[in-house]
Every structure is written in structure tokens, then in C-alpha cells.
Design a protein that fits this description.
Helix content: 40-55%
CATH superfamily of the largest domain: ATPase, nucleotide binding domain
Number of strands: 10
Largest sheet: 5 strands, mixed
Order of helices and strands: EEEHHEHEHEEEHHHHEHEHH
Bound molecules: 5'-O-[(R)-(carboxyoxy)(hydroxy)phosphoryl]adenosine, zinc ion
CATH class of the largest domain: Alpha Beta
Oligomer: single chain
Length: 359
């Protein structure tokens, strides 16, 4: 019988310092033995966003403690670990380097394999932390840095159907929150204050809604929010109305583009029924977005799957789990891998940002 691997996972790609111990389970699913996430909200709050150097310094200060805590909580001694996985990209280089270097060092010291993990693959495979999920499935990855529709064919096999051509959804939430002075981090605060507002009050643009397949765009929406904030003059009711209208516009955009992505998925895979639609990444924690995408899934015969809230945002359990699966597919020892700020899951997909983009 094959040994069930236990991996230490490390995540430092942005503003969360995280470590976790994950063990393979019977049915090819995971058992999370510990998952420690230390958020840097306090450090970045006063700047209203993530400051890379501040984030990197905080990772350096906390990482030893977080790794030790993860090991202690898992009740697994470091010598029982079969491998180490750390996020190598995409993300802030100064931040990635912290987790990557400590991961390589621990693996070398233990003479165990080191697996460099793509953060996006961590999110993509995160539903497997709780339930077995068969390939292929449709994935909507919505986080602070990415917004993509992908066919997850297998571990390390992705086909990108669409992506944002400018801002990510989470970024749009964060910027809207900043413009409306609703607090940091943006997403949860916009969601909270949107509950107090009238979502029909403002008519906001839905950029590229009827073109470019399931590619997404949020820059025009952000500019429209900025324009409206100029007329608000501290009126709370209007602030909440704008937060609600912004969130409703995001919901409508995701609804329309999800329908397009689902059609594309069916055409490409020839699968019609019982297909899973996974919504992962920090923004997947948003209850109104969840509710709407559940409806869309029903209409299109997809089964929606949302990772538990604790695995939607950045965490190291998803990194350990992606590391185990990559290693099972192809044993590697990635000690020479360097941090990458850009690392698409589908390397063949066209780069969709920058001037001169034709849609
Ligand atoms: O996946 P994640 O933790 O980090 C990245 O990989 O980017 O996602 C963070 C993003 C942030 O932009 C945050 O504002 C957003 O997810 N977010 C939300 C909610 N919770 C977090 N956006 C909308 N509604 C939420 N409840
Ligand atoms: Zn993330």
C-alpha cells in the first residue's frame, strides 16, 4: 500500500503568513492536520492597501513562529514530514522569497523533497481539502489579484477560458471600499455596508458585457464609482447605496460571464450534466455573489462547489495539498525554482493586459 504523504505547506505570496500540515486521506482527499493563517490587516490598514516591503518584513518576523505553531497543532514532528511545499508565484517577489527560501531550507535540512506551488493551483484544487472532486470541472477563481474562468482538466492541466483584461474583482472591491472610505480589507466591508443600501440606486456600467466571450473588465466600473463618490459629500445613505449598486453590478457581470463560460465548458468537454462549478479565491466568501452563482448553476445544470470560508482566502493548507498532488503526479525536487511574479495556470493562454488589446 502506498504511503500517505504528509506535507508542510507555506504561503507568503501577499499579506497572509500561513503554514499548514496536510495528510493524504483514504479516498485521495486531504486531512488538514493544522492550518495557521496570520493576517497582516493591522499593518496595512493605515495605508489602505498592501505595502510590499511592510508585508515582506512582517513575513520574515512571523514565519518561524507560524511554522512551529502549525507543526505543534498538527502533532506531527518535523522528522515525520514527507515533503515541503511553498508558494513560488504569482505574487509579490519580496514576499514570495521569504516562504520559498525557508521552505527550501527546511526541505534540504530534512533531506525531503521540495515542491514549488503555483498559488493559483492552490486555489484551484482547494475544494479537495474537504471533498473528493472529480476532473474536469469549471473553475471561477476570484481573488485580489486574479479573476479567471478555467477548465481544470487535472493537476497541472488547465485551459483558460477567460480572464480579466484590467483589474481583478477583489481589487475592484478593495478600491471601491477605499473610495467610499468603508475600511480595509475592502471586500468584506463593501459586503457589510452594501446590506444597508439600495442596490438599484445607481446605474453603473458593465464593461465588455456583450463581447470578448467570458473575459472580464472592471476598470470602467471603478471609474464610474469614483465619479459618483464626488457627489456624495459624506452622505452615509448614498455611500451605502453606491456600495450596494457596485456589488450588484459585479453580481450581474459574473452572472452573464458565467453563463458564457458554462456554454464554452460544455462545448469543449461534451459534458452536459452533473458537472461541478468551483468558485474559489477570497471573493468567493461573498454571500450575495455565492447566492447568485448557485442560481446560475441550477439553471445550467452545474453543481456549485464553494470551499469553506477558511479555505477561500489565502491559506497554506491549499498549498500543502497542491504540493502533495503535484508530487504524486510527478516526483520533483524544485530546489532551483525562483519566485515568479507572473505564473499563469494555462501558459498557452494569450496575455490579456496592456495597451493595444483587441477584443
Ligand atoms: O484569495 P485572497 O485571500 O488573496 C489573493 O490571492 O488575492 O483574496 C483576497 C481578496 C481581496 O481583494 C478581498 O477584498 C476579497 O478577496 N474579499 C472579498 C470578500 N472577502 C475577501 N470580496 C468581496 N466580498 C467578500 N466578502
Ligand atoms: Zn489567493
Amino acid at each position: 500500500m502506498k504511503k500517505k504523504l504528509k506535507f508542510l505547506g507555506i504561503e507568503t505570496s501577499c499579506d497572509e503568513t500561513a503554514a499548514s500540515v496536510v495528510q493524504e486521506n483514504e479516498e485521495g482527499t486531504a486531512k488538514v492536520l493544522s492550518s495557521i493563517v496570520s493576517s497582516q490587516i493591522k499593518e496595512h490598514e493605515k495605508f489602505g492597501g498592501v505595502v510590499p516591503e511592510v508585508a515582506a518584513r512582517s513575513h520574515v518576523e512571523n514565519i518561524d513562529f507560524i511554522i512551529n505553531k502549525a507543526l505543534k497543532e498538527s502533532e506531527v514532528s518535523i522528522s515525520e514530514i514527507d515533503g515541503v511545499a511553498a508558494t513560488a508565484g504569482p505574487g509579490l517577489i519580496v514576499c514570495l522569497t521569504v516562504g520559498l527560501n525557508i521552505g527550501k531550507t527546511i526541505a534540504s535540512f530534512l533531506k525531503k523533497p521540495f515542491v514549488a506551488v503555483n498559488h493559483l493551483e492552490g486555489h484551484a484544487l482547494s475544494p479537495g481539502l474537504e471533498n473528493k472532486i472529480d476532473f474536469p470541472y469549471l473553475l471561477l477563481l476570484i481573488s485580489g489579484g486574479h479573476s479567471q474562468y478555467l477548465i481544470v482538466k487535472n493537476v497541472d492541466e488547465y485551459k483558460q477560458l477567460g480572464t480579466t483584461i484590467d483589474d481583478a474583482v477583489g481589487e475592484a472591491f478593495d478600491k471601491t471600499s477605499k473610495m467610499l472610505d468603508l475600511g480595509y480589507p475592502g471586500g468584506p466591508n463593501v459586503e457589510k455596508f452594501a446590506k444597508k443600501g439600495d442596490k438599484k440606486f445607481y446605474k453603473l456600467p458593465q464593461p465588455i458585457i456583450n463581447k470578448a466571450g467570458c473575459n472580464l473588465s472592471f476598470a470602467g466600473l471603478k471609474t464610474a464609482v469614483l465619479r459618483e463618490t464626488k457627489n456624495i459629500n459624506g452622505n452615509d445613505k448614498l455611500r451605502y447605496n453606491l456600495a450596494a449598486s457596485f456589488q450588484e453590478t459585479i453580481i450581474k457581470i459574473l452572472e452573464k460571464k458565467t453563463l458564457v463560460a458554462m456554454d464554452q465548458f460544455k462545448k469543449i468537454t461534451n459534458l452536459e450534466k452533473g458537472v461541478k462549478f468551483v468558485i474559489a479565491g477570497g471573493v468567493a466568501a461573498n454571500q450575495s455573489i455565492r447566492k447568485n452563482l448557485i442560481e446560475v448553476s441550477k439553471k445550467m445544470n452545474f453543481t456549485p462547489v464553494f470551499p469553506d470560508q477558511k479555505f477561500c482566502g489565502d491559506n497554506a493548507a491549499m498549498i500543502a495539498w497542491a504540493g502533495i498532488q503535484r508530487f504524486n503526479k510527478k516526483p520533483v525536487n524544485d530546489l532551483n525554482v525562483q519566485a515568479r511574479s507572473r505564473w499563469p495556470l494555462d501558459e498557452t493562454a494569450p496575455f490579456m493586459k496592456g495597451p493595444g488589446l483587441k477584443l
